[in-house]
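Bench notes, afternoon.
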Amino acid sequence: MDSSATDGARLPPPRAGSRLCVRCGERKAALKRPKTLEQICRECFYIIFEDEIHQTIVQNSLFKAGERVAIGASGGKDSTVLAYVLSELNRQHNYGLDLFLLSVDEGITGYRDDSLETVKRNEIQYGLPLKIVSYKDLYGWTMDDIVKAIGLKNNCTFCGVFRRQALDRGAALLKADKIVTGHNADDIAETVLLNILRGDIARLSRCTFITTGEDGPIPRCKPFKYTYEKEIVMYAYFKKLDYFSTESALAQ
């Protein structure tokens, strides 16, 4: 980034909108990419963001034509952007995938019921079929029931285990070949650090894999493995995507 000085004082850096996009050189820059610090326009950002995800999919051979792919959809920013981008790339590059939204209703009053409304809108907005599986139907109780029985301590651990199982069972009902999740580069870095602190060598060796569970019935893929969380937020903001952003009351 250029800087200049007057009378020994450093001037503040120019705003992105005060110069031209370094990619196209035609439109005004609208943002500075957190990943590369390039000042680019929105249009170029969309192209670069989507192409990087496409290259990740192609280079890692994540999918095969004709596969049924369940998108883990929580209504949050990551899964919403994933659903939108994957549906766009499937159309643009002729992946030949059958895409579905798969949501889990944990039964958390005031949180999941609201976020599921977002997913239901995404179903219409993106033209993707939606399947919702609930703890109540699968296990006979909700997270609210569990919290009443055991209290708030360790409830996130319980919920995480049950949710992974629910996704697997939901994907099986859809006869899916793959499950994709919105785990991004920040999530993976956090998991690496946690496993180092815990001394969990077994998990550390596999937590960075882009595809896991290949020895199981339904593998899971992370197309956002190299995608920064900040850029996902920026993409959702500029595209005006419809997502739910309130944290679970049980985690507060």
